[in-house]
Amino acid sequence: MKVLPFKIPKSSNHALIFQEDLEPIFYDKLHQHAEIQMSYILSGSGTLLVGDTVSRFKPGDVLVFGENLPHVFRSDANHQGLCHMLTLFFNREGFGHDFFETEELKELDLFFKQASSGFRIADVDARFKREFIRLRSLANLERFMSFIKLLYEIHNTSKELLSNFTNKTNYTDTEGQRMSNVFDYCLSHFKERITLDEIAEIAVMSPTAFCRFFKERTNKTFNQFLLELRIEHACQLLRTPDNQEAISSIAYTCGFNSVSNFNRYFKKQKGVSPRTYKTTETQ
User: Fold this and answer.
1) Which domain holds residue 274?
2) Residue 5 has pLDDT above 80, yes or no
3) Which of 5, 145, 214, 272 could, after both became Cys, cross-link 276 (CB 3.0–4.6 A)?
4) What CA–CA distances, in Å, run from 13 to 5, 18, 33, 269, 274?
5) Confidence (pLDDT) at 280
6) For residue 9, what pLDDT is reported?
7) CATH number of the domain to which 77 belongs
């Protein structure tokens, strides 16, 4: 299967594509596409990889991914019920080459710049969510008008950037399959010890060539990426109110070989100790 690039099915004369996903898990292969993606998650949670960064997705998130920005959703295995997401796909030139260059719309330049890194809308109000949900029942012209309204709302809302790596990387099929295999293996085995030789074998490369390949495409070392993945999983466990697991146990559960290493890397990435994070997030 050619994972990258990913083709959004659409007819030649539609500039907006609306898609509703209601599945046990979201599509969980690393992919990128030429269209900008705006998604609203109604249910489902898990790990989110965008560009060079690992984070989490959860119900209520509104996420925007720019054109050709690699990303993957990995739904939590213990999620109850179906994962539900509404998405709009569009291309900046899909409305005409100069549509967004008009004086009336040029202030949206910041939206497209931030989309190239991917972002999460930090504070989405109920009115915005209702408008997004309404998209599925609207005809073409009404949907377009609603889309412009949503763009305006997003433009005036604070955002959390999801990635630091803004290089637009158009993967070949071989590169895309290789990166997908690496991410898929890490998402499934990050709780275990993963050696450089082991992950290089997954990529069908020598360890030296793999290190160079991974750094060029993510702007970080493989060890940095693996640490981020483990820390994000630890955050999920720490902020779960009914999880009484000791911090030392969480450290080993997430793949760390010592509590001191876990505490050090956690504070370096999150700015606070695991204990402080747990106290703050579960209050």
Assistant:
1) 190-281
2) no
3) 272
4) 21, 14, 18, 46, 52
5) 87
6) 54
7) 2.60.120.280
Are residues 261 and 147 both part of a single domain?
no
Both 136 and 215 in one domain: the answer is no
Strand spans (E) along 123-196: 159-161
**pLDDT of the residue at 240:** 83
Same domain, 218 and 137: no
Q: Cα angle vertex 271, ends 268, 277, to 5°?
A: 115
Q: Which residue has the tokens 């560009």?
A: 51
Do the domain assignments include residue 184? no
Within a domain: 168? no
Overall pTM > 0.70: yes
Residue 133 sits in the same domain as residue 260: no
In the chain, beta strands by DSSP E: 16-23, 36-43, 46-50, 53-57, 62-65, 71-75, 83-90, 119-121, 159-161
- Residue (of 44, 40, 53, 48) closest to 77 by Cα position: 44
For the chain, the first-to-last Cα distance in angstroms comes to 45
How many domains, the chain?
2
Taken in order 26, 28, 30, 31, the sign of the CA dihedral is negative
Evaluate whether residue 28 is within a structural domain.
yes
Overall average pLDDT of the 232-259 stretch = 91
Question: Is 256 among the domain residues?
Answer: yes
Cβ atoms of 256 and 262 within 8 Å: the answer is yes
12 — pLDDT class (breaks 50, 70, 90)? low
